[in-house]
Amino acid sequence: MTHPPHHEPAAPRDLVGIGIGPLNLSLAALAHPLPELDAVFYEQRPAFDWHPGLLIDGATIQVPFLADLVTLADPTSPWTFLNYLKSRERLFPFYFAERFHIQRAEFDAYCRWVADHLPGLHFRHQVDSVRWNPARELFEIDYTRLGHDGTAAAPGRTHAHNVVLGIGTEPHVPEPLRPLADAPGVPVVHAADYLAHRASLLAADHITVVGSGQSGAEIFLDQLRHRAPGHDRIHWIGRTEAFAPMEYSKLGLEHFTPDYTRYFHSLDEATRERLVTSQWQLHKGIDTATIAAIHDELYRRTLHGGWPQAVLTPGVRVRTAGRVGIGISRIELHLEHLQQGHRTCLTTDAVVLATGHRQRPLEPILAGLDPYLRRDNRERPRVDEHFRLVLDPAVTGHAYIQNAALHTHGVGTPDLGLAAWRSAAILNSLTGKETYPLPARTAFTTFGLEPHPRIPQARRSETLTHLAEHR
Question: How far apart are CA 219 and CA 198, in angstroms?
C-alpha cells in the first residue's frame, strides 16, 4: 500500500513522530483510535523494514509473540499480531504450530502490514531539524520530501505541540575495522547487510565472524550449516570471556518489566551507569537454543572422526586490520587475547562484523533545542519518568524519546516487550488521563527495600489540555 502525498494543516499537530521503527510504529498504532489526537509520523526510508539483512531463515525474535506492537497495552486493538494472522487466514496454522517465539521475518511482515494500513505515516520524509518557537509556543519541524531515487524533492515544515523521537540505531563498526569496512570492494561487511552478501561469503574459503552476541551466533550457524564438512573454515571471535547464554530465567526476565524500569530510573546517575555496564548478559548474550544448535552442528561433523575446521575463540579483540597479498587481496586481523595478553595475526578472505548497533546521534536533530536541553554529568540528555526530555521550563511542549534512554531507563529501553507499555505511558502523559490503563505491578521481584510507587499520571496542566479545548 502506498501512502498518498499529504498537505500540512493550518492548525498545529498535537504530536509529530520522527522515525518509524517498531517503537514509534507501536505509538502510532495505539494513537490511531484516539480521535482527540492529531498525530503524524515521518520516516526517511521508502517503507518500513526491520533489520532486513538479519532475517535469516529460521531466526526467531527473542521475545514472545505477545510482545507485538500493542497487545501488552491493548489486546483488543485491531493491530495485534493475532489479528494480522486472522487477516491472512493463518490463525489456525499458527495455533497448531504452537510457537511462542515467532520467526524474525514474520515479525517484520507483521510490522509492514501495520505500516501499510495505518494512516498518518509518511515515508520518504527526512526530518532535518526540530526547534522551539517561543513566540508561537510550538515545535517547528523542518523536513525534506524525498523522491523515489532518494534525492531531495521538496522542503516542508510543520508545527506541533509535542514531538517524539524514535530514530533508532545504526550499525556499529569498531574503529580498527572502519577503514576496511568503508573501502569499496573489500569483503568486510556488517551483520546488518549479511543476507545481501551471504552467497559470496559462502563461496569464500575462509571467513571470520567478529562478535559474540546473538547476531554473531546466527551468522556463524548459518555459514556452518551450509558448508560441507572439510570446507568449514570459519573463525568466530568476540571480546566477551565466553560465548555466553542470555539471561532467560523467569525472574531474570523481570528486569524487562515496568517495575524494574521505574526502579532503575529512581537510582542515582552513578549507580545507573554501573548497572548498564554490568548487565550485558541480560540483552547481549546468545539464545540457548542457538547455542545448542551450534553445538549440535559441530558435534554432527565429528561422527565419522576428526574435528570440524571451525574455530571458536572468546576473549579476543581486534587491535588493527589491513589488506595483504598480491592480486586477490586478503584481510589480516591483528588479534589480542584479553586474558593471556598474547597477540597473533589471522589471515582471512572475508569478515562479518556482528558488532551490534548503537544509538543514532541525536545532536543533528536536536541542535535547535540545545539551548533548552538539560544534561547529565556525561552531557547526555536527561529523560524524566514519562520518557520526556528534560527541557527548560520556558518550553511548554514536550519532547518524548524512544530507544535512546538506556542511561536513564535501563536494559528494557530497546526491548520489544516494553514497546506497547511505553507507548501507552507516553499517550497517557500526552493526553493527561489514563487513556490506556496500565498495571500497578508487573513483577514478583521487589527491586529495592521498599516497593517503588507507581508513576503518577502527568498533571493535566502539563499536558494537552488544548485537545479538549480546541475540538
Answer: 9
